Amino acid sequence: MTGKLTIIGLGPGAPELVTPAAASALAEATDIVGYGPYVDRVPFREGQRRHSSDNREELNRSRHALQMTSQGRKVAVVSSGDAGVFAMAAAIFEAVDLGDRAWRDLEIEVVPGVSAMFAVASAVGAPLGHDFCAISLSNNLKPWSVILDRLHAAAKADFVISLYNAASKTRPDHLAQAFDVFRKYRTGDTPVIFASAVSHPDQKIDVVSLKDADPSRADMRTLVMIGSSMTSIISRPEKASWVYTPRFRKMDLA
Asked: In what order do the strands lie in the sheet with 49-53?
């Protein structure tokens, strides 16, 4: 049997946001590899082996998946959202780059998924309608000083900014420091979106102004999105507001 490794993004949570390509690859796999809660999201198929591990075991998990693939198994490595956005695709290729040269001959495919920032954007309107970037506030793999430099650069460049890993018990003040950076470059009425458990039944989305943004609103399941100078809110009576970033400057449309 010829082995194959497929790296799959499961989307933000709702089953209907798993792409048909991802569902097909999962059904064909002999082995499912990933962080435990993500592996648990994959529908059970009899005879399929499951290999769950801790959230900080990316490289060990990658090596295990590559070893099984080299033995002829069809392995699916799963991530939440899109596997290429702060997830397992980069870890797999890092393991290939640093590991057994025979792994470079393996068949490896990356199946895209719906990233959390796209699910959040769709839920509130079109905040990513113009230039944007994504920054992780986790300093597990890079120094906090580097993150601060990138926050300053992105804020100064007037990007809409999606913050992944916005809060955790081990870094309770990072989001507050990030808001302090943004307030140097943005007005107080800049829209800020807090989106928790997006696409799950307990989804909660709040749109507030930067001056009122409370870091304690975020937890480990929260993505935070900060608007650019052009991001606008469309208020609607008795309905949730829409948030969008125009593709053209407002003065161009006058």
From this structure: 49-53, 31-35, 74-79, 4-9, 108-111
Q: Which of 74, 70, 77 is nearest to 92 (CA)?
A: 77
Confidence category of residue 2, pLDDT binned at 50, 70, 90? confident
Domain with CATH 3.40.1010.10 in the chain: 4-114
Among candidates 187, 167, 169, which has minimal Cα distance to 177? 167
Structure tokens at 27: 């059904």
Residues 185-203 pLDDT 10s? 999 999 999 999 999 999 9
Domain 4-114 coded CATH 3.40.1010.10: yes
pTM score, two decimals?
0.91
Structurally, at CATH architecture level, domain 117-247 sits in 2-Layer Sandwich (3.30)
Nearest alpha carbon to residue 129 among 254, 250, 248: 248
> For the residues of 189-238, what is the DSSP string, one character each?
T-EEEEEESTTSTT-EEEEEEGGG--GGG--TTEEEEE--TT-EEEEETT
What's the distance, CA 229 to chain centroid?
A: 23
Residue located via tokens 């499961």: 10
- Give me the helix-helix angle, 88-98 and 58-70, nearest 10°: 70
